[in-house]
Inverse folding.
């Protein structure tokens, strides 16, 4: 089975894998389960008399694709599940949130029905939960007698959604009505800010400034707003999204850039390691053990979306540049001079990451300075937001500290270091223009 298809890469596979492991490793909600369970995997095994190791094997059946159908599915051969395919073609529409539609027969059900997904991560979690329910049913004796979305599927799906997934999503949920209000407020504030700037811009001619001022006053009066609107900060609504941590060429790039990214985007970050073990009546089942490592970004929705976007952007840029470097004349000369492949690539990556981190730090300082100059009490508002975010983060993770920078070891082949820095300087770290607000990287 090919695990990555249709122009996707290891990032997308590991992202889905980390979400699936997190779902299986989730400690079920006590209010909705009859027996105490270590995690969802154990609860499903005890509820349906299945082996934990056999249930956990679903992780090895995962694949990612991106076909135009947008349909995710569980494939079986001779009654045996062989592949759980997650289709990114149906996920990208959730960049700005959207209704995750379930089948009409149970779409209105409060537990397993349709639900608002704030972002692609939540849509992926819902997709994985749906397909996991199919997988559990497929393992049951006489599975062929059950309808694809019949009563048994609904029972299993209800257990997964009610005891594990829904509580996960509810922790940072923002219902559709709140989101609609937030979108309206955001558009209104953007318009007010633009009109205020135009009315006071010294480069505007007299008629343009006067017309902008009239429009601004009319807009303020229409919505009953005072002159300070847009100058302060609204109550902070936080969300949490994740990016996968995994090795490529024995290197975990995200761990070396996550701290700078969180500072650049104005969010908190923390690294999680989620083990998942199966057990039998006699103890730990050595035939099954897996884990998930990921970085959580915690903060305002737009800032977190930018952190996720920047993480994938840097990952793709790093390994794309590394591949280009290994086919360059500079690399060939150094290899002929006797330098080991690993030493050259390591120096290139280290220089690339160090330069990216420096650029992110400088960009954050520039943004802070510009905001402080454009708003009279800008620095105070920024400090207030940072303090509020830290308080909410500590409430969410009382025993954890926010992420910190990893020191890189200096030194290496000078030509490889120079090539890495040059490649990092060419990466565009700016936010996409407003005409491309989805913060989604172009796909191959």
């Amino acid at each position: 089975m090919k695990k990555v298809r249709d122009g996707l890469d290891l990032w997308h596979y590991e992202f889905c894998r980390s979400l699936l492991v997190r779902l299986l490793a989730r400690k079920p909600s006590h209010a909705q389960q009859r027996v105490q369970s270590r995690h969802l995997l154990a609860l499903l095994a005890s509820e349906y008399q299945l082996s934990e190791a056999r249930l956990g094997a679903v992780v090895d059946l995962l694949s990612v694709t991106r076909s135009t159908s947008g349909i995710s599915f569980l494939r079986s051969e001779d009654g045996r599940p062989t592949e759980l395919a997650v289709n990114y073609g149906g996920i990208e529409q959730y960049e700005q949130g959207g209704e995750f539609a379930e089948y009409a027969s149970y779409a209105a059900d409060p537990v397993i029905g349709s639900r608002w997904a704030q972002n692609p991560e939540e849509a992926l979690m819902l997709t994985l939960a749906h397909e996991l329910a199919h997988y559990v049913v497929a393992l049951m004796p006489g599975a062929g007698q059950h309808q694809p979305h019949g009563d048994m599927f609904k029972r299993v799906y209800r257990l997964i959604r009610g005891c594990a997934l829904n509580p996960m999503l509810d922790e940072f949920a923002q219902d559709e009505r709140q989101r609609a209000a937030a979108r309206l407020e955001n558009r209104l504030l953007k318009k007010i800010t633009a009109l205020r700037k135009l009315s006071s811009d010294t480069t505007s001619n007299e008629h343009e400034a006067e017309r902008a001022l009239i429009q601004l006053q009319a807009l303020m009066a229409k919505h009953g707003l005072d002159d300070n609107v847009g100058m302060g900060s609204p109550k902070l609504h936080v969300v949490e999204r994740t990016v996968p941590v995994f090795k490529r060429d024995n290197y975990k790039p995200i761990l070396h850039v996550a701290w700078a990214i969180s500072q650049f985007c104005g969010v908190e970050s923390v690294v999680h390691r989620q083990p998942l073990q199966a057990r039998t009546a006699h103890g730990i089942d050595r035939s099954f053990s897996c884990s998930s490592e990921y970085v959580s970004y915690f903060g305002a929705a737009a800032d977190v979306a930018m952190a996720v976007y920047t993480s994938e952007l840097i990952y793709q840029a790093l390994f794309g540049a590394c591949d280009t470097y290994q086919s360059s004349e500079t690399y060939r000369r150094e290899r002929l001079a006797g330098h080991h492949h690993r030493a050259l690539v390591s120096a290139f990556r280290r220089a690339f990451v160090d330069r990216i981190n420096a650029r992110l730090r400088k960009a954050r300082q520039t943004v802070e300075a510009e905001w402080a100059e454009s708003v009279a009490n800008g620095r105070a508002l920024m400090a207030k937001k940072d303090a509020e975010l830290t308080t909410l983060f500590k409430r969410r993770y009382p025993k954890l500290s926010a992420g910190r920078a990893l020191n890189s070891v200096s030194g290496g082949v000078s030509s490889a270091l120079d090539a890495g820095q040059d490649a990092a300087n060419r990466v565009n770290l700016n936010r996409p223009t407003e005409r491309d607000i989805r913060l989604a990287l172009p796909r191959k």
Q: What stands out?
A: Strands lie at 62-65, 73-77, 80-87, 98-100, 115-117, 238-244, 268-280, 283-300. DSSP finds 13 helices and eight strands in the chain. The longest helix spans residues 341-374. Confidence is low (pLDDT under 50) at residues 229-233.
